[in-house]
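Progress narrative, Year 2. Work on GNAT family N-acetyltransferase from Anabaena lutea FACHB-196 advanced from sequence curation to structure prediction during this period.
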Amino acid sequence: MNGNIILETPRLLLRNFEDKDINSFIAYRNDPEVAKYQSWDIPYPETAAREFLEYMQQAKPGTLGEWYQLGIALKSTNEIIGDCAFCILAEDGQQAEIGFTLSRQYQGKGYATEAVTCLLAYLFTEYKLHRVRANCDSANIASVRLLERLGMRQEGHFVKSLWFKGEWVDELWFAILREEW
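Result:
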């Protein structure tokens, strides 16, 4: 697949990261409420942000077993307000895992639903995937509700299965099949 992706929704662009995105990216990555359920720690340094953006600018979408992230930008300003990611599983190439992050000031406005709906459509049409899955901390109610709104079914609840940021947490796993999409 081509490395330059631009997906459109009524209000958003899902697009490759650009150098000008650095300040917005650092800002939401350093928000304690945004980082709470994410894999990175805060403070999230500018050097890490620059390395990440450079890496993503060289990455190829759809490389089996490797995560690929797209910025979520407002169509009106092209400002990055979050990101979404996918990883096509190396085991079979017919399934993927997704993830998403949204700046706190844009949460609760339907942007995440719009972006992840677009990402799922892209994965099911462009890659002809059989199944897409996602997981989240059971305490992350906003993400649980989003995944349910997208029509993803909860397939598992793993009790205190993940050592995360100094404590054992429950993981919820969701999935949707192409024919259900």
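The domain at 6-180 is CATH 3.40.630.30 (Aminopeptidase). The CA atoms of residues 39 and 164 lie 8 Å apart.
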